[in-house]
Design a protein that fits this description.
- The chain is an alpha/beta fold.
- Helices cover 45% and strands 13% of the residues.
- It is built from 12 helices and 8 strands.
- Helix 1 packs parallel to helix 2 and helix 5 packs antiparallel against helix 7.
- The termini are close together.
Length: 286
Amino acid sequence: MGKKVGIILEGGAMRSIFTAGVMDFFLDKNIDIKNIIAISAGAYAGMNYVSGQRGRVLESVVKPMEHNRILGLPVFLKTGEFFNMDLLFDKIPKGDCPFDFESFKKSDKRFITSTIDCNAGVPKYFDTFNDFDEFLHIIRVANSLPLLSKVGYIDGVPMMDGGMYDAIPLEKAKEEKWDKIIVVFTREKTYRKGPNGDIYNSKPVKVLYHKYKGLLKAIDGRPDRYNSSIEELETLEKEGKAFVLRPEGVKLTNNESDPKKLTEYYNVGYETAKSRYEELIEFLKD
């Protein structure tokens, strides 16, 4: 591939199990994309693609749900966070299902994830990780959603999930000078954000995060940025510059905790990528 190609992985909490299926298919077929921007939970799938750990999302997220509470009200009441962040971003990757950080560091792929600076209201992108602890901390903050997680701090700056600014970072892809973009969505093709946004454009968010003016401003503009990105991608698809994979014919939910259903999400992702394999290979040709 002579042209510079990159992947954008949308977030979506548990919907990103779909993305894990897509990325495992890429590993199985040796589809070697050198640039990855992974937003929010997309980072959990993207990092395993970079480290080459096929099936690790099933082992590190889905399988533990058979005997551990990873999300839900009981977790929130105990930890103050909807997802068990200590389990997902410390215990599991360091012990129960180790993440191969050494292979990740040695990979020739460039992995980028993002947070939002809650004060300034602008995205912060990370592509350099000095050690494993720093990496896990950044990934954790990049998955810290308003209402569902605590505000994280990186170098003393309050930060949260980068998807609160831009869930589909096309501007960053342009900055990286990608010639072709593969985008993995976790929502169906018809999805658009309404004028009033979603749960994050709510009164509880405005009350709880009132001191973070930048965060609130970014959230207010999020629906327009998201929908505009969809429109731009449709144009790029027609021009042969973008290739989009998304779940069709199945409803994915971001708070699913049934291991069987999550495995189905994964299989839908894998089979979706498989069904588009020939198209993808054609797309990747110079």
